[in-house]
Amino acid sequence: MRLMIALLLPIATFSFTLGITLPLMSIEKLYFLEERPSLLEVIHGLWLEGDGALAVIIALFSVVFPAAKIIVVHVAVITGARLRSLALLSTLSKWSMLDVMLVALVLFAAKTSGLAAASILPGLWFYAGATLATALAAALCRRATGG
User: Fold this and answer.
1) Residues contacting residue 111 through CB under 8 Å, at least 6 positions apart
2) Which distant-in-sequence residues (6+ apart) come within 8 Å of 136 by Cβ?
3) Which helix (H) or strand (E) holds 137?
4) What is the pLDDT of residues 62-89, one digit of tens each?
5) pTM for this one?
6) What is the DSSP secondary structure assignment for residue 38, as one 8-state letter?
7) CB 41: neighbour CB atoms within 10 A?
8) Among 32, 64, 118, 122, which is disulfide-ready with 110 (CB 3.0 to 4.6 Å)?
9) What are the residues facing 28 on neighbouring strands?
């Protein structure tokens, strides 16, 4: 079980980094305009356009909470999963799929608006992989400690 956690954590960290920096989707408008934003570019764009509240919400649920969860799993494994780490991990786990759902909603909105054609790019796959690897590592960590 420890070997599986040791494999999953670097994969989750690497995938998360690629997931927030690589383009998530390709949005084609009017057949000749194409955008390929990464998650960080979407957040930055929202902030610059005056949608600060939305930028902060997306940053919290799509970058900060998932990054915190990965860090807490690392800390729990290194420290032998102390009780405080497990309690924080349990709290963060409740939000674990919200980040993927948020990105999927953006993709769905782009596809169904009729104004643009959207397709999935590697950033979304890395992001989803990071979410799944982190969730699996967290579950194995809780199971290994009996928490």
Assistant:
1) 117, 118
2) 8
3) helix 122-145
4) 888 888 888 888 887 887 766 566 666 6
5) 0.79
6) B
7) 16
8) 118
9) 34, 117
